Amino acid sequence: xxxxxxxxxxxxxxSIGHVLQDLQAQDMAAGEIIMVDGGSTDGTPxxxxxxxxxxxxxxxxxxxxxxxxxxxEAAQHDFIAVLDAxxxxxxxxxxxxxxxxxxxxxxxxxxxxxxxxxxxxxxxxGATTLPTVRDVHPAxxxxxxxxxxxxxxxxxxxxxxxxxLDYCEDLIFDLRxxxxxxxxxxxxxxxxxxxxxxxxxxxxxxxxxxxxxxDGKADLWRKRHAARYAAYAxxxxxLACWLWPNAxxxxxxxxxxxxxxxxxxxxxxxxxxxxxxxxxxxxxxxxRILIVALVPVIRVxxxxxxxxxxxxxxxxxxxxxxxxxxx
Length: 327
Description:
Blueprint: E1 3-9, H1 16-24, E2 32-37, H2 44-49, E3 54-58, H3 64-74, E4 79-83, H4 93-102, E5 108-115, H5 120-129, E6 147-151, H6 152-157, H7 169-179, E7 185-195, H8 201-218, H9 222-243, H10 251-275, H11 285-320
Parallel strand pairs: 1-2, 1-4, 2-3, 5-7
Antiparallel strand pairs: 4-6, 5-6
């Protein structure tokens, strides 16, 4: 059966040509390609209109959830494949991401995503924030909508993407899919896309601030965020103990607490360090030293961004009272 490929775009003139090229080079042709533009001002719609094989829907001001829902609603086919505009696709992506649907073995197919890192910072960021296939537990994996496919009836069954949410929208969509009886989700690691991580610390912190703000809006991961605040409160209290004038009297206790904190910190960066060898094969020795040094910096910077964004999302939630999404 034919497949509709849907993606949202916004000011993607620098990358849209690559994804168009990759989609047209698939070894299984899409039945249609739908791009929903949220109000680009950089010439992206003009670039898309020049491609006869793409159907452009203009939706100025639409967030990513609204754009995806509009594109899926307009699709002509029952099988839907969703991706992001900034990715690169292998030629067999569409075939792999839809094979379980076409074989009637699944209602949702979770693809995968990998970093296409070009700089030491991007390598360190990819290792710190992105899982490997070995990290994935298929029974609980929540796919990114960078690479996912599903039946349109299944999308309707869970109410589509949550249009009131601007970030973490695909997590809510995934959680509703997981909670719906009878919905079969499979993991297909061969349907993997590649994308460049954020290029610098400021861009990364903005991204994770928005992610955490989305967590707060959607009331996601309370325990995880609480644990983060508690860990940094512990570190601040430990620092205060060392700076306190009478700390020498309690050197044994303070030293033990410091060793505990050091062990926790080592465990916190262990997984990113284990992921580095698969990403830095072409990096010379001095760059590898820099990459290793960047991992804890990225960890702490991301935590700061999350701790700033999460309460902002919660305040928004208390004021706006969005609709409940849990079934």
